[in-house]
Amino acid sequence: MREAYIVDGVRTPFGRRNGGLSRVRPDDLAAHTLKALVAKTGIESGAVEDVRMGCVTEVGEQGFNIGRLAPLIAGFPVEVPGMSINRMCASSLEAVNQAAQAIRADVHDLVIAAGVESMSRVPMGSDGSTFSDELLRRYNIVPQGMSAEMIAEQWNLSRESLDQYSYQSHQRALKAIESGRLAQEVIAVDTVDAEGNPVTIRQDEGPRADTSLEKMGSLRPVFKPDGRVTAANSSQITDGSAALLLASDEGLKRHGLKPRARVVAMSVVGVDPVIMLTGPIPATAKVLERAGLRFDDMDVIEINEAFASVVLAWGEEYHPDWERVNPNGGAIALGHPLGASGGRLVLTALHELERRQGRYALITMCIGWGMAVATIIERV
């Protein structure tokens, strides 16, 4: 079987809801990221054989197959096809995996895996309606926040531990921004402010330098009066885009490209759609088994911080070295633009692997209605 390599990647800053990126259409934002990736790698856009783009809420400005329209907006030749992928929160991680699968299967030699979500302009859930009566007969479907509460209860995670983890996410993200580590993966976006004046967004807007454990502790639970899940220990509603270039050995040679990582193994699992967010636990076990590796082989781990309880419950099962887990902060601080987060996690893991001179990184994400995706990459 052929190998699939990650050549490079870029992402926009992640903007707060109604923040700096909210005046950019998501299809334009995705196009901006695609153009930046082509410029960074030096490839001809016409050499790309497919664009796989994660996007969750595929209505309005994110409809009409944004995976096809964004490359056209970016000036790619009409011969370059594109598709949209909705694996909910893991959509762009799924895009990376599908790109790797196509390369391994000798279907393509050069594929862009991307993702985008403007949660300011296209509200989460606006692509849905009511649930089937038959589904509700089978499962007591609840909001994800209630699932996060269920996880906190099942693993006996205190409100204090959730807030402490979330505070750490902000502190790590702020340190990563200050040191310039995150700047390596971020491309600037030119837009306008609320008054129509030109502005350039250069860094993530989510991390809060003014937060504290006291402030976090003062917030009321969102989903249960006596609950533990608050806005502070949940991921932020965010706008953003990410894109990565993947290639085969033949693609590398033909276009004079140098790989940065190899896609080692992938997994996708289903779990109970009610508690729904426990999927990273079995997905981690499955991807390690497929890779023939041990948990301790992972030098960097990026697990999406949909809620602090998701990460801490996973941690109760694997007992990781927490210095290797989300070392530059996660979605609680940086935000979670649904369709773009997976690409961001892969890109951040890749940069951190190189910084640490490590070998393997694990990326995993919980997903609504009870699924999870996991991917292992190897630095080359």
TrEMBL record:
Gene Ontology MF terms: acetyl-CoA C-acetyltransferase activity
SUPFAM superfamilies according to UniProt: Thiolase-like
Question: Which domain of life does the UniProt lineage start with?
Answer: Bacteria
| Domain Thiolase C-terminal span(s) in chain numbering | 257-379
> PANTHER family from the entry?
ACETYL-COA C-ACYLTRANSFERASE (PTHR43365:SF1), BLR7806 PROTEIN (PTHR43365)
Active site located where? 89 (acyl-thioester intermediate), 336 (proton acceptor), 366 (proton acceptor)
Question: Which reaction(s) does its UniProt entry say it catalyses?
Answer: 2 acetyl-CoA = acetoacetyl-CoA + CoA
Compartments where located? Cytoplasm
Where is it found, in Gene Ontology cellular component terms? cytoplasm
Protein's name in the database: Acetyl-CoA acetyltransferase
Q: A Pfam family in this protein?
A: Thiolase_C
Can you name the source organism?
A: Sulfobacillus harzensis
Give all residue intervals belonging to the Thiolase N-terminal domain: 5-249
Q: What InterPro entries is this protein classified in?
A: Thiolase (IPR002155), Thiolase-like (IPR016039), Thiolase_acyl_enz_int_AS (IPR020615), Thiolase_AS (IPR020610), Thiolase_C (IPR020617), Thiolase_CS (IPR020613), Thiolase_N (IPR020616)
